[in-house]
Amino acid sequence: MEDVARLAGVSMMTVSRAIREPAKVAPATRARVSAAIADLGYVPNLTAGSLASQRSGIIAAIVPTIDNSIFAETMRGLTATLTAAGYQVLLGQTAYDENAEEALVAAFLGRRVDGMLVTGVNHSALTRQRLIKAGIPVVETWDLTADPIDMVVGFSNHDAGRAIARYLLDRGYLRLGFAGGNDDRTRSRLAGFEAAIRRVKGASLMRAMLPAGTSFRGGREALGDLLAQDPGLQAVFCSNDAIAVGALMECRRRGIEVPRDLAIAGFADLDIAAEVTPTLTSVHVGARRIGEESARLLLARLAGLAVETPVLDLSFLIMARESA
Amino acid sequence: MEDVARLAGVSMMTVSRAIREPAKVAPATRARVSAAIADLGYVPNLTAGSLASQRSGIIAAIVPTIDNSIFAETMRGLTATLTAAGYQVLLGQTAYDENAEEALVAAFLGRRVDGMLVTGVNHSALTRQRLIKAGIPVVETWDLTADPIDMVVGFSNHDAGRAIARYLLDRGYLRLGFAGGNDDRTRSRLAGFEAAIRRVKGASLMRAMLPAGTSFRGGREALGDLLAQDPGLQAVFCSNDAIAVGALMECRRRGIEVPRDLAIAGFADLDIAAEVTPTLTSVHVGARRIGEESARLLLARLAGLAVETPVLDLSFLIMARESA
DNA sequence: GTGAAAGCGCTAACAC
DNA sequence: GTGTTAGCGCTTTCAC
């Protein structure tokens, strides 16, 4: 930067301004600085800038995983909105491991990120405490809680589970199955699913809990598992669409016709849900919108604006299609 | 940090050492420092550390996209290896846009990342120049070139396209179709595919070029497109498995039996390839291994070791399954 | 519209 | 094994 300043015949301060607030520099000066920058191939050191300004321009996002996953959409929404506002997004994946989350939060806080998005509302005490102490805007996502670290954007997994159970029960399916990875939000969906089933006489429930994060293959295995538990199974709710598509594949292989022989419902309403045959009934949760709204709230906080409400319930919608 | 030092009764330097090189600090001192850190909830400022040490501990990776994608696997391989070595991975997505790549490279260089992985071997002149000037280890991936910016880890897309064409031709399929997103590497695969077809008398080729980055839906549309061009089509090569699965879905919807009526081959050998019905013939390219080997080379360079060969050809393998 | 001085929080290099 | 000194490359604040 010193070289640039010298070449342009100005002070470092003017170079700095020409880069960050060009409007505050005289056009002629600006032109000379730009020329010098291009000439020297100067790349401003954002690390030094962050240290001096106490703002990193980085928002961190922590999700369980991004493989063929519901969270990729959320990341897209978040990234699009934040990038447009001049922020960079730093992505961290936990693989559904609470220790990994703790380590990531620590690392990101160490980088002095300006804000953070985390997935879910259950975090280790240490993580919560660090996040609160950091004093930066934080959004928890993909669930709701009355007691957020800072802000929450999501929907009630419990209610969504209950709603899809009622949907299936209303259609006359009584012998139900549940297939899902074993993570917090899936357990909430299952709890809601179960609660609705318990209220209906004659309704039954089989469970196939998979390792958190499994997808197609997990769905195929789960289907076999559930059918072994109850050969007369009538409908299966899968806690995400990848698992549901896996179940659909397994049905096809076994010659089970969906929904005639067995109904299948998914969760999250990924693009693939509307593409498979039969098309997949699923619970739309606005994965992308979660990211966008989270970004909006973070930006509002960073701009010093008061956030209207720290708990944003985006709700959900049952997308009735052919499979159930 | 000063507070921690005061509380532990040592100098800042000792605190710094206790954190980064605990072995070099007396156990008793270390214990006092740890206690002080915990007491105060001190989180070291990595930004300041990076500035002072001139090492960020960050490796950046730039891929076109990570949605239900072949690159997610590469990222996993890269991240696993680098995380184990104490580095953090910063992910950037270009959405197949060269300008986005340029902006990302500039931003990452501004953060003084210690190394970088980029996708493909074609980059804007400015990007190349900046990367070379930065003097950091750089790996280009998912293709090969005799003239790398620094190092390359991949396979020949051209050869892979030729190989799958020969595979199909050998099986007696002569009226061939190609469906793929319109990006550099896909075009290389197509060029190889075409080259092999041209050498066979009586063989024909229809093309359906999709926007770069499409997947299931694109595959369904492409299949319709190709069939409209040649109703007597015998086999289709899709430049990635998501497109191939989309094509498979469309076949199912139209009552086309695969491979009896039409053969389908994919590319990249994603997990889903072995799960669908019929199982999908695909070209295995070691997506994860590209990430791992890239990490290995970057780490070697960062450790000051000489890298045996800057061009690492991981080759590919045709996975013959039911669909073709 | 531009510049000078001070310092962000840490680590390299060296001394003890 | 521990401490001291001198910066890393910027931006803040305030002066002109």
Can you give a write-up of this model?
Two copies of one chain form a homodimer. Chain A has three domains: 2-44, 434 Repressor (Amino-terminal Domain) (Orthogonal Bundle); 53-155 and 287-315, Rossmann fold (3-Layer(aba) Sandwich); 157-284, Response regulator (Rossmann fold, 3-Layer(aba) Sandwich), CATH 3.40.50.2300. A six-stranded parallel sheet of chain A has the order 2-1-3-4-5-11, sandwiched between helices. Chain A has twelve helices and twelve strands. Chain A is α/β, with parallel strands linked by helices and 324 residues long. The N and C termini of chain A lie far apart (63 Å). The longest helix of chain A is centred in the C-terminal third of the chain and has 16 residues, at 287-302. The structure holds a DNA duplex (16 and 16 nucleotides).
What pair of chains forms the biggest interface?
Answer: A-B, 44 and 44 residues
Distance between the termini of chain A: 63 Å
Radius of gyration of chain A: 25 Å
Order of helices and strands of chain A: HHHHEHEHEHEEHEHEHEHEEHEE
- Approximate helicity band of chain A: 40-55%
What fraction of residues of chain A sit in β-strands?
15-25%
How many helix segments of chain A? 12
Write down the CATH class of the largest domain in chain A. Answer: Alpha Beta
The count of β-strands of chain A is 12
Assign the structural class of chain A, choosing from mainly alpha, mainly beta, alpha/beta, alpha+beta, or little secondary structure: alpha/beta
Specify the oligomeric state.
Answer: homodimer
Could you say what the CATH architecture of the largest domain in chain A is? Answer: 3-Layer(aba) Sandwich
